[in-house]
């Protein structure tokens, strides 16, 4: 396909898209609610109500503008980069990281806001509205799974902000087709104010606007304590979310900075440390960077040397710059100073100086000077805080052996793959739910907080038995719905394999009927306010049960996968674990048995356990057997 035909198709697409964006914003073209409603309608409201509605209007209007910005980034810039300029998907993702997640989150939030606005319209009017309740929508947006997704998306987007802009400028400077594309799409009036750099900056700033808007809405909420309480709670939630995003951005930026420093470190650079051993550049990357800066190190000859200092998880690292590379200085003391039991003292009559006294034998004292008193105080405070939580050398050795480094990398790779599998399983559950909705025409809800199903209940052993029991319950209920009253409900099995003749309760509090009958004394389904719920149509309940079953079984699969990783790592890490030959099932270490099966109540001293209660959780016997047999 020629570039000209792509351009023609692109022009039609961009024109229709921009027209759609303008059409969606027509209800919020004016500056405020006060000017959007009729004057007679406005005069019927108190001053505080008018102020509150003005701020709510501003919230919806700015959210609409934000979604418009995201759609321009997606439908204009990213689409053109991929389809017209033919850039690699990785390049487009680097310029617009996690754009799909942001667009999904905010499009859903905007749809809820617009729906609430439409439900609040005065009878017979298309522009007069008063929103009395908004706190519930804000709480839903800034808590639970939505908050988790926003935290991840904004942390990633904001931390990559500068790199994204830098990459965009590089593309613009060297790629003629990209230059032509940007010039062409920027001709429209809407995109004159929405260039790539402007869009990226607007997205990074959006999350900081919510606390201000919610606070103003709260300040003008009078006489409605329930709404005020919801607003206060949502204000706390968004502030916590913003703080968490800031912290994650800071950590990601520190990680990126540490990688840059490592890249600039001379490959041959190394230095000896106290207690023996050689410290090389690779040791930096297994630590976290807490603070860095330029300080002056006073040597034995009373000379002050400029040094670049890294405050890390358990050490202070001193480096010097030479030929645009970092090296470890060859001075009178080691360039790597352990923080274990390090003493920090200021120097009398020298407001910019401090002493660092090591815990070595004999102790060594470093005299360090900062550029100002405030800078010195900042360093002292951060060093003292890091010393107070410094890990022990048993848990975190100063120098890592090659075998330990390899084991750590492999463990990290396994855990990363586990996380990727869990995310894919979660997406599959969501897709199954969507399929059930489309097929049945009924709205189907995912199980409460489904992401938690894909997390271990304990760090040692995910409780797959509970998931399996819930899945069996869903199968029983689903079978009854599908086959009707002629079904004899299967007898449930307890965890030890014995048959249990009691009726198994389902998640909504009802009991499974046997032979089509219900216990007359069984509790009636009620909502969270205690109101009696009407029975759902059979087709709708079948779909809901299918989704529940899908979620439980996928969670069980995730648990089995994680359990496999735990068993494999335990085999090679345990005190009696460095097997070089296959280990028979009957000779499995009792200690590992006990730690891996605490939830099943397995007594390791009893010898070989029954097949159904081996160290792996329910449903993972095969993987457990595979792990023990090599």
Automatic annotation (TrEMBL):
Signal peptide: none annotated. It is found in: Cytoplasm. InterPro entries: DBL_dom_sf, DH_dom, PH-like_dom_sf, PH_16, PH_domain, Rho_GEF. Residues 493-502, 514-534 have a biased composition (Polar residues). One of its GO terms (biological process) is cell morphogenesis. Keywords: Coiled coil, Cytoplasm, Guanine-nucleotide releasing factor, Metal-binding, Phosphoprotein, Zinc, Zinc-finger. Residues 51-248 form the DH domain. This is Uncharacterized protein. It comes from Anguilla anguilla (European freshwater eel).
């Amino acid at each position: 396909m020629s570039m000209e035909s792509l351009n023609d198709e692109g022009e039609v697409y961009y024109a229709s898209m921009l027209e759609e964006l303008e059409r969606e914003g027509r209800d919020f073209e004016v500056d405020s609610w006060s000017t959007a409603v009729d004057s007679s309608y406005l005069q019927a409201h108190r001053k505080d109500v008018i102020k509150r509605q003005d701020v709510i209007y501003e919230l919806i209007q700015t959210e609409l503008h934000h979604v418009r910005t995201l759609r321009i980034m997606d439908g204009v810039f990213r689409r053109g980069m991929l389809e017209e300029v033919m850039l690699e998907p990785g390049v487009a993702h680097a310029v617009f990281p996690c754009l799909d997640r942001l667009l999904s989150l905010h499009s859903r939030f905007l749809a809820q806001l617009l729906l609430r606005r439409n439900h609040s319209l005065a009878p017979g009017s298309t522009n007069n509205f008063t929103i009395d309740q908004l706190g519930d929508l804000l709480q839903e947006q800034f808590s639970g799974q939505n908050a988790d997704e926003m935290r991840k998306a904004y942390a990633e987007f904001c931390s990559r902000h500068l790199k994204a802009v830098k990459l965009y400028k590089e593309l613009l400077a060297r790629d003629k087709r990209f230059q032509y594309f940007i010039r062409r799409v920027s001709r429209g009036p809407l995109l004159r104010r929405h260039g790539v750099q402007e869009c990226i900056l607007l997205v990074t700033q959006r999350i900081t606007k919510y606390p201000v808007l919610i606070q103003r809405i709260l300040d003008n909420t009078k006489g409605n304590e329930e709404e005020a309480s919801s607003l206060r709670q949502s204000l706390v939630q968004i502030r916590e979310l913003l703080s968490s995003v800031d912290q994650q951005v800071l950590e990601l930026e520190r990680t990126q900075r540490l990688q840059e420093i490592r890249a600039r470190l001379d490959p041959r650079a190394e230095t000896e440390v106290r207690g023996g051993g050689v410290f090389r550049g690779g040791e930096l990357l297994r630590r976290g960077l807490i603070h860095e800066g330029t300080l002056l190190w006073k040597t034995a000859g009373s000379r002050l040397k400029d040094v670049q200092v890294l405050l890390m998880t358990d050490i202070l690292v001193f480096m010097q710059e030479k030929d645009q590379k970092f090296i470890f200085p060859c001075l009178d003391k080691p360039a790597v100073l352990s923080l274990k039991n390090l003493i920090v003292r200021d120097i009398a009559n020298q407001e910019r100086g401090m002493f660092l006294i090591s815990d070595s034998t004999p102790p060594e004292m470093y005299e360090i000077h900062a550029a100002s008193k405030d800078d010195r105080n900042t360093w002292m405070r951060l060093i003292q805080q890091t010393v107070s939580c410094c890990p022990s050398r048993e848990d975190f050795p100063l120098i890592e052996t090659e075998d330990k480094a390899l084991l750590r990398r492999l463990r990290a790779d396994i855990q990363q793959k586990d996380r990727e599998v869990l995310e894919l399983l979660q997406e599959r559950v969501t897709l199954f739910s969507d399929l059930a909705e489309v097929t049945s025409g009924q709205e189907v809800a995912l199980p409460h907080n489904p992401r938690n199903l894909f997390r271990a209940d304990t760090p040692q052993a995910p409780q797959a038995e509970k998931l399996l029991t819930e899945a069996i319950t869903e199968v029983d209920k689903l079978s009854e719905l599908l086959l009707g009253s002629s079904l004899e409900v299967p007898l449930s099995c307890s965890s030890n394999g014995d048959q249990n003749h009691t009726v198994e309760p389902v998640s909504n509090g009802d009991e499974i009927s046997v032979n089509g009958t219900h216990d007359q004394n069984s509790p009636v389904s009620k909502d969270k306010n205690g109101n009696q719920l009407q029975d759902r149509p059979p087709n709708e309940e079948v779909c809901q049960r299918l989704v529940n079953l899908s979620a439980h079984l996928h969670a069980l699969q995730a648990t089995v996968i994680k359990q496999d990783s735990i068993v494999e790592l335990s085999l090679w890490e345990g005190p009696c674990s460095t097997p070089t030959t296959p280990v028979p099932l009957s000779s499995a270490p009792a200690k590992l048995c006990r730690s891996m099966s605490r939830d099943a109540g397995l007594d390791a001293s009893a010898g070989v356990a029954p097949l159904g209660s081996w160290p792996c959780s329910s449903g993972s016997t095969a993987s457990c057997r595979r792990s023990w047999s090599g």
